[in-house]
Amino acid sequence: MISTRPTKVQDYQAKDYKSDLKPIWCPGCGDFGVVQAIYRALSAIGRPPHEIAFVSGIGCSSRIPGYTTAYGFNSVHGRALPIAQGIKIANPELLVLVAGGDGDGFSIGGGHVPHAIRRNLDLTYIVMDNQIYGLTKGQLSPTSPKGLETVTSWYGSRENPINPLLYVLSSGAPFVAQGTPADMAGLAEMIEEAIRYPGFAFVNVQSPCVTYGEESGQLKAHKKKMQALADLGHDSTDMLAAMGRAQTYGQDLFTGVFYRNPTPQSTYEDNVRELHERFEAGKHPRENILDLFIQR
Ligand code: SF4
Question: Is the pLDDT score of 286 beyond 90?
Fold first, then answer.
């Protein structure tokens, strides 16, 4: 497998990834913690900001690329992954981060997630999961718990929530983790690990919405509830164990790496590069390309 991973870590500080733009999230929003964790993770990786592309969809959390010094693209609702994949294929040397909310990723953008996973581009997808649509003032999102009363569900939601952890695990994601800004150090380490993983990496961040979210989803509740998978003896190379832990999404708050495929497969961009090399080596010269489609 051809790796595009950085080997040389340069001396960048967390502040070098912080833009001059002042976040306009509500005071206390969990996304403040997530962006801080991303600054720390990027500084640990040490890639210069101009070698990083940060793509998001639409929603409160999707403002996040603007608060970094990376190249940012606050794109179209639910379409961050297709755009990020295009960027990565066009320039595999870039470190590509993708971010968005639970509504962006698992409702309108839900169809893109399994396809990004099966292509296995080397991307890190960070979902700020607050179980609500915050930007549009508190409607049900795909991860809202059944029974939740919102402006669109006065009598309580009648729908079962999507389980984002099981969704990505069952689609074959090779790296799946969950964190919370209530454990900033743990979240930063997890994001760093996700970036370093050579393939599609998913980080579900329980990021509280202080304005429309439930009490049980706030940082204070997270601090009481969270349990580090590492302390529970969880084997992150065991897919079935990961699925077992993921099943209790919405009840338990497990943090850490649920699953890390110990034998990473080649990435889509590696495969594309290999194809290019084959063409360049003359196995399929450009002038004979039509021969591939003609039976002799
Ligand atoms: Fe954060 Fe919620 Fe405010 Fe949006 S509405 S900025 S998610 S606290």
Answer: no
Q: What angle do CA 281, 282, 288 make, to 5 degrees?
A: 155
pLDDT of 2 above 60: no
Strand arrangement of the beta sheet that strand 226-228 belongs to? 71-74, 52-56, 95-101, 123-129, 201-206, 175-179, 253-260, 226-228
Looking at the predicted structure, is the pLDDT value of residue 1 above 50? no
Q: Which amino acid is at 224?
A: K
Cβ of 134 closer than 6 Å to ligand 1, yes or no, is: yes
- Determine the residue of 212, 214, 215, 219 to mutate for testing ligand 1's pocket, defined as the one with the most ligand atoms within 8 A of the Cβ atom: 212
Q: What atom of ligand 1 comes closest to residue 213's alpha carbon?
A: 2
User: What number is the average pLDDT over the span 158-167?
Assistant: 97
Looking up tokens 């450009």 gives 286
Whole-number Å distance between alpha carbons of 145 and 129: 12
For residue 137, the ligand 1 atom closest to its alpha carbon is: 5
With a 6 Å cutoff on the Cβ, whether 101 touches ligand 1 is no
Q: Model-level pTM?
A: 0.93
